[in-house]
Amino acid sequence: MKKLFAVLLLAFGLATPSLANPDFDLGPATGVPAPSIGTPQDQTGAPRALQSLMGEKGLVLFFFRSAAWCPYCQAQLIDLNSGVADLAKRGYRLAGISYDKPETNAGFVAARQIGYPLLSDRGSVVIDRFGLRDPQYKPGRIAFGLPRPIIFILDTNGVIKAKLYEETYKTRPPAALVIQAIDKLAAGG
């Protein structure tokens, strides 16, 4: 919990960089444009550019390990689905990205009635652009190319306004925390 609190402080700009753990600063910094995602396929096979995913005020873009075999990701995908309506009320849409194939994502979306797109980053190109590839998995392993889980809150220009993540892949920020972060941003925090 202490690590999560420190990360949240940094995400909201409430702490100085000297409080950050430099070994645990994940992904691009807040305040900079997010790297290009190109046009990865969603679960229907349709190519999706970043702008096509945006809500009126922005996008919550999150990276997850796998809907096929990661129980922590499956729980996160279901939990975030519970926040889709609240995000929409605030002008945000939600999209997830992993190295899973579109048909894998389609199966999960259908089985769990997920109300947001899951993008397929075959080859982990976008994952690498964001600097999120988990280095512990080597070529030939099922997990090779998967990202460290993280949630980015982007404005309509694609600028990273906040990022939420945990030290371990086994714990994920819940939908309620994402909504709190968006409310804090809207209040000027």
Summarize the structure.
This protein is an alpha/beta fold and 189 residues long. The chain is 31% helix and 14% strand.
Biggest sheet strand line-up = 3-2-1-4-5
**Content-based structural category:** alpha/beta
Uncertain residue ranges: 1-22
Tell me the major beta sheet.
5 strands, mixed
Radius of gyration: 15 Å
Integer average pLDDT: 89
| Oligomeric category | single chain
Instruction: State the helix count.
Output: 7
Indicate the percent of residues in helices.
25-40%
**C-alpha end-to-end distance:** 21 Å
Tell me what portion of residues adopts beta-strand conformation. Answer: 5-15%
Backbone shape? globular
**Helix-strand pattern, N to C?**
HHEHHEHEHEEH
Task: Give the tally of β-strands.
Answer: 5
What does this structure look like?
The chain has a 5-stranded mixed beta sheet. The longest helix has 12 residues, at 175-186. The chain contains 7 helices and 5 strands. α5 (102-112) links the parallel β2 (92-98) and β3. The chain has 189 residues and is an alpha/beta fold.
Question: What characteristics describe this protein?
Answer:
189 residues, alpha/beta, 5-stranded mixed β-sheet, globular, disordered N terminus
